[in-house]
Amino acid sequence: MAQIRKTRPKKTVKRLKLSAFKALFLAASVLGVCSILLILTIKLSTPSASSVPSTSSVPSTSSVPSTSSVPSTSSVPNASSVPNASSVPNASSVPNTPKAFVIIVLDDAGHNLSQLNPFLSLPHDLTIAVLPGLAYSAESAEQARNAGKEVILHQPMQAVNLSTNPGPKSIQPDMSSSQIRALLTENIREVGPVAGMNNHEGSLITADINAMNTILSFCKEKSLYFLDSRTNSETKASLAALELNTKVWERNIFLDNTQNRQDIIEMYNKGLKFADKNGMVIMIGHIWSGNNLASILDELYDSSISKGYEFRTINSLVKTGQ
Fold first, then answer.
1. Contact between 217 and 184 (Cβ < 8 Å)
2. pLDDT class for 145, splitting at 50, 70, 90?
3. Residue 207 C-beta-side C-alpha neighbours within 13 Å
4. Domain spanning 100-319 has what CATH number?
């Protein structure tokens, strides 16, 4: 029996082709849409330029501590840069306030030069009080100034004991004010320039308020200080100074009432104790003690300095307002 071959109509084939094409187009469209969605998803999940910190919001090298702002080993003190005991000044080399002032005055210069010379080589400040009218008065004053020592007039004045002769060019109780002034002017011309004056003997004159008014008025006018040697406990020097609105300085210690070495050292140490309590001491010695007193003062100098005492003159204190 012959097979009957069935054939589809051409129309049906055409339709099938169209359907397949549509399906393919639809699939392509779906795939395209999926691709677009995928791209959008990726874009949405990826930070944009606006959400990424900019260089202005990211700490710059200027805001990040650099090596120069971070302490380096060179800026951290090391053992070599920390002061050690040897580089720290010790107490002896650090300037400090003096414990007290020591003022040494040496009376009775003018008799000779041999007794004066040992004092001129002493290393510290001191004052030479020169008597007027003697063979070596002017030369003693000149040599003392050349040696850098302070010079004052050691003015002779009459003592209570009228039989005591105070020496040439002395102030006597029967002198008028003008005579006293003229005498002081003459004596200063002989041994001057001087920084001040003190009394030689004078227990009678210093107890006379009128005489002391004249003497202190003269000193005030000439810008000279007056040192009261206090040869009389009844001295009127302080009272006269009060009336004249001026100042007098007073002797506290006599160093060489005897020539015994231990006595002199004892008086010197007594003077230092006085300075400890009062801030200063004025000690008077005498040129006629010569090398004996000079050598003792020289020996005591270093220990006095090491204890904090400072040697000064009255005039140096006057100039600094003390």
1. no
2. very high
3. 12
4. 3.20.20.370
Beta bridge partners of 254: 284
| 17 confidence band (pLDDT: 50, 70, 90) | low
| pLDDT for the residue numbered 24 | 57
State the Cα–Cα distance between residues 139 and 137, nearest whole angstrom: 6
Q: Where are the beta strands (DSSP E) in the chain?
A: 100-109, 127-130, 150-157, 196-201, 225-228, 248-250, 253-254, 280-286, 309-312
pLDDT value of position 321: 85
Is there a contact between 218 and 246 (Cβ–Cβ < 8 Å)? no
Of 273, 239, 238, 236, nearest in space to 253 by CA = 273
- Which two tokens mark 298? 């020289």
| Residue boundaries of the structural domains of the chain | 100-319
Instruction: Quote the CA–CA distance of 225 and 241 in Å, as a whole number.
Output: 11
Name the residue type at position 309.
Y
Long-range contacts of 215-222 (CB under 8 A, 24+ apart): 215/155, 215/171, 215/180, 215/184, 215/240, 216/240, 216/241, 216/244, 216/246, 216/248, 217/244, 218/180, 218/181, 218/184, 219/246, 220/244, 220/246, 222/188
Question: In angstroms, how far is CA 215 from the centroid of its own chain?
Answer: 37
Instruction: Provide the 10 A C-beta neighbour count for residue 127.
Output: 25
Amino acid (one-letter) located at 4: I
Q: Tokens 């007193």 appear where?
A: 293
Considering the entire predicted model, what is its pTM?
0.71
Which residues 6+ apart lie within 8 Å of 259 measured at CB? 289, 292
Say which amino acid occupies 290: G
Contact (CB, 8 A) for 210 and 239: no
Amino acid type, 237: A
Residue 292's nearest CA partner among 254, 251, 263, 272 is 263
Nearest to 286 by CA among 104, 146, 160: 104
